[in-house]
Amino acid sequence: MQAIQKYQDKSAVIGILGLGYVGLPLMLRYNEVGFSVLGIDIDPEKVEKLNQGKSYIEHIPAEKIEAARHSGFEATTDFSRASECDALILCVPTPLNKYREPDISFVVNTTEAIKPFLREGQVISLESTTYPGTTEEELLPRLEEGGLVVGQDIFLVYSPEREDPGNPDFITRTIPKVIGGHTPACLEVGLALYEKAIDRVVPVSSTQAAEMTKLLENIHRAVNIGLVNEMKIVADKMGIDIHEVIHAAATKPFGFVPYYPGPGLGGHCIPIDPFYLTWKAREYGLNTRFIELAGEVNSSMPDYVVSKILLALNDRKKAIKGSHILILGIAYKKNVDDMRESPAVMIMEKLRDLGARIAYTDPHVPVFPKMREHHFDLSSTPLTRENLAACDCVVLTTDHDRFDYELIRAHAPLIVDSRGKYLAPEGHIVKA
């Protein structure tokens, strides 16, 4: 098949639609193995930066973008150029709307944008996390509107993204790639597309099975984090340190996987993806009570941390109103600059609404970014002994490795630790 041969000899042009935390690493990988890559994004600022050899994601160095530019990578906002590509890989956001329902408008709009420029021999791969059935219900009919037959003229696959930003142990190449095709021919072309870039490709029987695989991975994590967050609350009431318990339990060499509690869930996947399945399950008359309960527990954690701050200040005869509170770390996880769904931001908003004076320090986020739903006109405060001592309370929300934890312990008058960094009990440290 000619479509497969192009990937084997690397003459295919790879189109990446959406150049964010998923699309950009994928672009670099295809560029690295010798493919010509065209990136398409609706954000002209991103496109301009990339074409200048600059990066807007902290853990992706500008030198890598610059090298990709010199070896043929180009970014554009012009969707008509999709016709130049042999593969079109969609890496666009799939958030929830305000009713906690799936918002697949980015997927639909991107598909509509490329639809007039489709041609024979192309493979379209959706990587965005979504509910089972999206590929066949939303992409398939749109791709066939112009008369092209999927599985014969063009090929359609679903291959969920698996990125773990800030984790040096796993990169795009080494994370196994699950892929499902609409037809056996679609799967065959999809495997050829990914096999040159990814060490291990794992085929499944359908696009729905691949979509469900991604949801199971993230629901597994969300449910277990929900469990350990609930255990944290119980252990705290009993005067037991949950982190000590987890470390002890993790010595069991079978039947236990350690998950760690925190101030809530963040990132684009774990807080959102479970609700994609609960929404779709209603179509079949099913209630996913287990998943929804975990979601409730995890969603309540910012309130739990705030209550711990209130009680800690109250014990020191201080009101929350007017208190100077320093938030340590506002990215959703350690050692990254990603702010999506960050529980730290939710804690900041709740404290601000209660009248606290909020500041933050985060070596990965020098200026509070523009966000769709959260607004703070703040820059990162330097982490000095003077700034720590001037606070009424310091709240550890994201445990970046670059923080000087001994400096914080020595000079903060009150520490509310939601990450379990301070295991030794001290009078000015409150575990949350």
Can you describe what's shown?
This protein is of the alpha/beta class and 432 residues long. The chain has 2 domains: 2-205, 3-Layer(aba) Sandwich (Rossmann fold); 225-431, Rossmann fold. The protein has helices at 2-8, 23-32, 44-51, 62-70, 105-114, 134-144, 184-195, 207-237, 242-249, 273-282, 289-315, 343-353, 385-389, 405-411, and strands at residues 13-17, 36-40, 74-76, 87-90, 123-126, 155-158, 177-181, 201-204, 324-328, 357-361, 393-396, 415-417, 429-431. The termini are far apart.
Task: Kindly summarize this structure in a few lines.
The chain is α/β, with parallel strands linked by helices.
Attribute tags:
432 residues, alpha/beta, Rossmann fold, 2 domains, eight-stranded mixed beta sheet, five-stranded parallel beta sheet, 14 helices, 13 strands, 38% helix, globular
CATH topology of the largest domain: Rossmann fold
Helices, by number, come to 14
Structural domain count:
2
> How many strand segments?
13
Describe the protein's topology.
Blueprint: H1 2-8, E1 13-17, H2 23-32, E2 36-40, H3 44-51, H4 62-70, E3 74-76, E4 87-90, H5 105-114, E5 123-126, H6 134-144, E6 155-158, E7 177-181, H7 184-195, E8 201-204, H8 207-237, H9 242-249, H10 273-282, H11 289-315, E9 324-328, H12 343-353, E10 357-361, H13 385-389, E11 393-396, H14 405-411, E12 415-417, E13 429-431
Parallel strand pairs: 1-2, 1-4, 2-3, 4-5, 5-6, 7-8, 9-10, 9-11, 11-12, 12-13
Antiparallel strand pairs: 6-7
Helix pairs in contact: 1-7, 5-6, 8-10, 8-11, 11-12
